[in-house]
Design goal:
128 residues, mainly alpha, Arc Repressor Mutant, subunit A, two-stranded antiparallel ribbon, 2 strands, 9% strand
């Protein structure tokens, strides 16, 4: 957690006020968050299922990322009735559901451009 007086924290807040895009990127930033959201969307809605689907993530990191997504109302944690010990599942909110196609598009963009594929320069519309 960042100190509220740090320049990183202050700059992040300023950018969020200037443009909502920065706020949105901040919400989903994190090494595992997009994979967590997508896996819950696919039905891997329990903590142990997410651990299985995300090799390399620690329990601590998964718990922290889930909590952050919950704090941003991307998902909610629901108790599964009649389970001992009490089971919990994660459900995407409408905000989380709306995020899935955006993450999917970002994934497709990454498949095309993230691996250093040659790109062509397109003139900016404002330069025309």
């Amino acid at each position: 957690m960042r100190k509220k007086q740090s320049s990183n924290y202050i700059n992040e807040k300023r950018l969020a006020q200037i443009c909502e895009r920065n706020s949105a990127i901040s919400i989903v930033s994190g090494r595992w968050k997009s994979q967590i959201v997508f896996n819950i969307f696919l039905g891997n809605d329990r903590f142990h299922l997410l651990l299985q689907q995300l090799p390399g993530i620690s329990e601590t990191v998964l718990a922290r990322q889930l909590k952050e997504l919950e704090n941003h109302a991307i998902l909610v944690k629901k108790e599964i009735p009649d389970t001992v010990p009490a089971g919990k599942r994660y459900i995407l909110t409408n905000k989380g559901q709306d995020l899935v196609p955006i993450l999917d598009n970002l994934c497709n963009w990454g498949k095309i451009y993230a691996n250093g594929k040659q790109i062509e320069v397109v003139s900016n519309k404002s330069e025309a």
